[in-house]
């Protein structure tokens, strides 16, 4: 199995009234589920027990046993799990995966989770950046996912930032796939998308991934550097992030 996650916001602070100490932190439940589960549905049931309501994420669990290259994707290949205080919702999203791709961009998919988290109120106040269907990354993924044909093009879309030219970005360096908070016109900060991990089916079977550290260079963007503009401690970190992808794998040997 492969598990990945993106964090969702909880704008409705009343939900935190449901957080109780008689629970287990997300990292504990996720780690136990990773070790015990034999599929996405079982993973979701294990992870749901003793929900702490802290570190609220969308989890995507891929069962590689159910994927047959150039043949078929069985039901249960992709389970999606979303957690908020008092609720964990999960479902088999394989039918969507079969259409081409499953997107994830820090906005809840499940309507109940979306509504309880307070997203409709934020959209009404601030616009569609927090809409599941109309967030900038949702629109960019829909437009460009057909261009992903191999690992290199997957790397490209996951590091994509052409905010100066892309109409969906509207000139905002964070309204894109890989945000550069340091390039914002107003209140720039060293925040946003600061790494990328990419794998494919065959690599995943060998526990391999290509990884890169640092904010994206996107389309003609300067590498991020710790300049005097950012008066923040960064001891031990490189001054400038201008790296390429590296192939990584664990040191242990599989049976």
Automatic annotation (TrEMBL):
One of its GO terms (cellular component) is extracellular region. Coiled coil: none annotated. Signal peptide: none annotated. It comes from the Eukaryota. One of its GO terms (molecular function) is phospholipase activity. InterPro entries: PLipase_B-like (IPR007000). Pfam families: Phospholip_B (PF04916). GO terms for biological process: phospholipid catabolic process. Transmembrane segments: none annotated. Keywords: Glycoprotein, Hydrolase, Lipid degradation, Lipid metabolism, Signal. Its EC number is 3.1.1.-. Putative phospholipase. Belongs to the phospholipase B-like family. This is Phospholipase B-like. It comes from Magallana gigas.
